[in-house]
Structure formats: structure tokens, C-alpha cells
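Figure 6 in text form: structure in, sequence out.
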């Protein structure tokens, strides 16, 4: 096989890989401990960009998205509330639609601390938005902690347009 043919095949493979990354799957990396113990720092995973083309995100799923506040970083969090849900945090415990949530994945590393997001709501999740939290609740930059830097006002909801995909395949 000639060098020209190999270069041609390599270019085709790179193009196909680029298109797949753009529309189907992308590798992601857990750079912070906000999703521990579910995703330890350093965990690699795949962001599935196809699933949400066919159905909306569901409560409990771990998603990849761009933060709704500057600097609009890529983040990984769990969906707690979907459109129409009423979400409330009482002394760090999540209440969903008037009922306490059972969350075996959640961790509180600052049990003696009083944090701004420990008591919120009740908040109704608007259409086209989600309420998201990290599994390590006291160490997560999420719906309970976001503030608009220009106004200082809380930003409780993640717009659907910022969701990149569903987290799959941790390794």
C-alpha cells in the first residue's frame, strides 16, 4: 500500500472520528470530587450525545453540560428535578414533590457546616430546565450554589440547551 493511500485512509478515519465525537460520543474526565463517591477524581467516561436526541433527560441520570454561569465550564452532575417538579432542600436533605428522596449515592462531607444551599425552596423546575446536584453535596458547584456573577442572584436551574449528553461507561 502506498504512502498516499495510507494518508488518505488516515484522513478519512480522522474525519469519521471527529464527526462521531461531535454528534455521538465524547470522552470526559472527572476533574473534581463533586461527584464522589460515584465518580472518583480521575475517572474517565463517555458522554452519550445521541440518547437525548430521542428522549428528554430523566431524573437520577448523570449528565454532562456547560455551566449556566460564567466561565461556562464543562460539568458532570446528577439530575434531581425535571420540569414541573418541586424541589426543596431541608437541612441538606432533598425533598422532591413533597417527599424526602432516598439517595444512597449522596455524600455530605461537611455535616457540621452550615452552607448556603443547605436549605432551599420549595422551587418549581421550569419547563426546559433541570435542577442538578453533585453527589458530594457539600463540595459541589451546582444548582444549590450557582450565583449570577453580575447580579449575585441565585441561578437554580440548568437550561436544557446546555446539556451535552448522558454520562455512560465509567473507566
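Output sequence:
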Amino acid at each position: 500500500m502506498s504512502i498516499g493511500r495510507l494518508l488518505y485512509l488516515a484522513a478519512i478515519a480522522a474525519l469519521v472520528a471527529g464527526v462521531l465525537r461531535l454528534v455521538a460520543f465524547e470522552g470526559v474526565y472527572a476533574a473534581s470530587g463533586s461527584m464522589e463517591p460515584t465518580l472518583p477524581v480521575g475517572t474517565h467516561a463517555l458522554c452519550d450525545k445521541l440518547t437525548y436526541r430521542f428522549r428528554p433527560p430523566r431524573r437520577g441520570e448523570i449528565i454532562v453540560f456547560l455551566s449556566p454561569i460564567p466561565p461556562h465550564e464543562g460539568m458532570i452532575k446528577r439530575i434531581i428535578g425535571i420540569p414541573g417538579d418541586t424541589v426543596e432542600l431541608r437541612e441538606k436533605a432533598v425533598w422532591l414533590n413533597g417527599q424526602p428522596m432516598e439517595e444512597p449515592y449522596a455524600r455530605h462531607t461537611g455535616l457540621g457546616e452550615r452552607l448556603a444551599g443547605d436549605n432551599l425552596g420549595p422551587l418549581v423546575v421550569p419547563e426546559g430546565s433541570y435542577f442538578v446536584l453533585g453527589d458530594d453535596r457539600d463540595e459541589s458547584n451546582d444548582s444549590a450554589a450557582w450565583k449570577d456573577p453580575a447580579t449575585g442572584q441565585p441561578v437554580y436551574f440548568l437550561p436544557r440547551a446546555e446539556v451535552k449528553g448522558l454520562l455512560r461507561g465509567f473507566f
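Caption detail: The first strand starts at residue 25 and ends at 29.
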